[in-house]
C-alpha cells in the first residue's frame, strides 16, 4: 500500500477485481473524470465491460491475468470481499492497492470482522455466535470497561 500516494491524473488506468454493478457505476463515474478502466472478471460481458472497461476474462487467481492487470494499471481496487486475498496480496507488491489485502482478509470472515471492529471500540450488536459461552465472558468484560 502506498502511504503517500500522488493523486491519479486523468488518463490513468484503474484496475478492478470484479466487474459487477458497483464496478459498472465506478467506470461510468470515472470515465466522466477522464480515467480508464481494466477489469478482471471471470464472467464474459460483465457490467463494467459493458460500461466501457477493458475486460480480462479470467479467474481472480490467474497469474497471467493478475500480471497483466498489475502491469497495465496505476492503481487496483476490488469490487467486493469475495476476491482471493492472496491474489490481492500478490498485486500489492506490484501496484498500488489502496485497501490492501489485510482488510480484505478481515472482511472475509464475519466473526473476525466483528472482533476487529470491536477491538477498535466500535459498538456492535452481539450476534448469537458471539454470545456462546466461550465468548460471553470476554464480551461482558469489554462492555464493563
Question: Topology, please?
Answer:
Layout: E1 13-17, H1 21-32, E2 36-40, H2 47-50, E3 54-56, H3 63-72, E4 75-78, H4 85-92, H5 102-107, H6 110-119, H7 133-144
Parallel strand pairs: 1-2, 1-4, 2-3
Order of helices and strands: EHEHEHEHHHH
Q: Cα distance, first to last residue?
A: 34 Å
- Look at the structure and give the mean pLDDT: 84
- Please state the overall shape, judged from the principal axes of the Cα atoms: globular
- Runs in which pLDDT lies below 50 for 5 or more consecutive residues are none
Largest sheet features: 4 strands, parallel
CATH topological fold name of the largest domain: Rossmann fold
CATH architectural grouping of the largest domain: 3-Layer(aba) Sandwich
Computed Rg: 18 Å
Please list the strands of the largest sheet in the order they lie side by side.
3-2-1-4
The total count of helices amounts to 7
Share of helix, binned: 40-55%
Number of strands: 4
The CATH class of the largest domain: Alpha Beta
Question: Would you kindly provide a written description of the structure presented here, covering whatever features stand out?
Answer:
The protein has 145 residues and is α/β, with parallel strands linked by helices. It folds into two domains: 13-106, 3-Layer(aba) Sandwich (Rossmann fold); 109-144, no CATH class. It is built from seven helices and four strands; from the N terminus they run E-H-E-H-E-H-E-H-H-H-H. The protein has helices at 21-32, 47-50, 63-72, 85-92, 102-107, 110-119, 133-144, and strands at residues 13-17, 36-40, 54-56, 75-78. A four-stranded parallel sheet has the order 3-2-1-4, sandwiched between helices. The longest helix is centred in the N-terminal third of the chain and has 12 residues, at 21-32.
